[in-house]
Amino acid sequence: ELRQLGERLLVALSRLLRLVATTLRGMSTAASAQKIKAMRTAAALKVRAHIEKGHRAALALEASGAEVEEARAEFESVDASLEPHIPARGVGGAESDDEDDDYY
User: Fold this and answer.
1) Crossing angle, helix 69-82 and helix 2-32, to 10 degrees?
2) What tens digit of pLDDT does each residue of 71-85 get?
3) Which one of 9, 32, 43, 79 has the minimum C-beta count within 10 Å?
């Protein structure tokens, strides 16, 4: 009986993880809709931080035997959609935006 409860818990948690992924998709869409670049970047970075937490939760659930492939694929898709809104980092962690070259 305890084993069955554990299996039911894993199924419920994997469903919850899919819900988290769907919610993050909505947050990503809202972040992309921000008109001010700095606001878009800040929102995208927040969503990315939550995606990383979701990935860690998925790995833990997967290690326990839960099926989380669908949620992990959604996390990767959402993360890829954020890529244009997050500045690339150059050598030493500096942003590689050409616009910032005038300040150095």
Assistant:
1) 20
2) 999 999 999 999 999
3) 9
